[in-house]
Amino acid sequence: MLARLKSTVYVGGLENAVNEKLLADAFLPFGEIVDVTIPKPDLPSSKDPHRGFGYVEFETAGDAKEAIDNMDQSEFFGRVIKVAPAKPQKDSNEGLGSKTAIWETEGWIAQHAVSEEDRLAAQQAQDAKTNSEDPMRSLESDVAGPHLE
After folding, report:
1. Beta carbons of 48 and 15 less than 8 angstroms apart
2. Residue 37: in which H helix or E strand, if any?
3. Burial of residue 110, with CB atoms counted within 10 A of its CB: 0-12 exposed, 13-18 middle, 19 or more buried
4. How far apart are CA 128 and CA 3, in angstroms?
5. Beta carbons within 8 Å of 3's beta carbon, 6+ residues apart
6. What is the pLDDT of residues 70-99, one digit of tens each?
7. 97: alpha, beta or left, given left = phi > 0 and alpha = psi -120 to 50?
8. 149 or 117, which is more confident?
9. Which partner for 82 in 12, 29, 31, 123 could form a disulfide, CB atoms 3.0-4.6 Å apart?
10. Are 5 and 60 in contact, with CB atoms under 8 Å apart?
């Protein structure tokens, strides 16, 4: 899977007229292409044919690097495209857009769990702080200004 990711490039900023065949034809000079994918919009009501980006998977990582070096910031169908190494897809249970509450994930619980002893010690420290004598309390009866007798 990792070797496959290294030979895949992300292509962003695609014009709506671009399809998988046109994208494959544009990247063919850089090496043997294994697969071309242009994700469709998430919303079925969307009028756009795709989401404006795609992935081109090459046979070798060297071909992918060559495509990045030559095609990044080039013009394709009237738009400047971004070509970069593809990043691994995030797990649907991670980050923004996750359908799981953060505190329900294993990693968060392990990192933020507090033992009962620690909770009691923190509570006692808080209680001691709020019950301690306020050093400014003795000054409350003082009246500012000169004392007239």
Report:
1. no
2. strand 33-37
3. exposed
4. 59
5. 61
6. 999 999 999 999 999 998 866 555 555 666
7. left
8. 117
9. 12
10. no
Residue 68, classified by CB atoms within 10 Å of its CB into exposed (0-12), middle (13-18) or buried (19+), is: middle
**Residue 132: helix, strand or coil by DSSP?**
coil
Q: pLDDT tens, 34-84?
A: 999 999 888 878 888 888 999 999 999 999 999 999 999 999 999 999 999
**What pLDDT is attached to residue 87?**
87
The tokens describing 14, both together, are 């695609």
Q: Model-level pTM greater than 0.70?
A: no
The most distant pair of C-alpha atoms in the chain lies apart, rounded to whole Å, by 102
Quote the tokens at residue 135: 């050093």
CA dihedral (71, 76, 80, 84) positive or negative: negative
Query: Tokens 């070096």 appear where?
Result: 69
The total number of residues written for the chain in this structure: 149
- The token pair that represents 125 in the structure block: 């420290």
CA 99 to chain centre: 15
DSSP 29: G
* Helices H / strands E in the chain, number of each: 5, 6
